[in-house]
Amino acid sequence: MTGYSDSWQQLIDMAGGGVPAPHGGRLKHNGGPWTRAAGAAEALRTDMGQVKGDFGAAHEGLASGTAGLRAGAVLRTVRTSWERRIETAARECGSLAGKLRAVAKDQGEVEAAIRSSFRSSLTGSSAGTGVGPGAGSGVGVGGGR
């Protein structure tokens, strides 16, 4: 007998297998979606860099082909505007990719720390963790009941 109440024992048991989901199954952190999203953001950033190069190639010879026409000036203005937007979006995608990877890493570390604290509670070595049965209350296994 561990000496834990049924509710604490249920929490400890769940720490090893996730948390019950509202519609059955288990909720458990998985970094996969976060890292896939980071990969997609990186791919977008790369693609946007290529698009900027494509704009340059598409506009080669524009000045000589539209000499004396206002269309050339308008197209250059539009191109400049789109290049700025592409650069901004590419920077944002690069930044977002790093943030998404950090979320996956941080959530994984938090889950591991919580699981570890529950496991250490089972062995009675939760002193100083601030997590687990009776943390901070003076109540728990051997807590003077």
Q: Largest sheet at a glance? A: 2 strands, antiparallel
Determine the mean pLDDT: 74
**Which percent band covers the strand fraction?**
under 5%
Q: Count of DSSP E strands?
A: 2
Distance linking N and C termini: 16 Å
Assign the structural class, choosing from mainly alpha, mainly beta, alpha/beta, alpha+beta, or little secondary structure: mainly alpha
Task: Give helix and strand order, one letter per element, not per position.
Answer: HEEHHH
Number of helices: 4
Q: What's the arrangement of strands in the largest beta sheet?
A: 1-2
Q: Roughly what percent helix?
A: 55-70%
Q: In one word, what is the shape?
A: rod-shaped
List low-pLDDT spans.
126-145
Give Rg in angstroms.
Answer: 28 Å
What does the secondary structure layout of this molecule look like, with pairings?
Layout (H helix, E strand, L loop, with lengths): L5 H10 L3 E2 L5 E2 L4 H27 L3 H4 L4 H53 L23
Antiparallel strand pairs: 1-2
Structure in words:
The protein has 145 residues and is mainly α. The protein is 65% helix and 3% strand. Strands 1-2 form a two-stranded antiparallel ribbon. β1 and β2 (26-27) form a beta hairpin. The longest helix has 53 residues, at 70-122.
Task: Give the tags.
mainly alpha; disordered C terminus; 145 residues
How would you summarize this macromolecular structure in one to three sentences?
The chain has 145 residues and is mainly α.
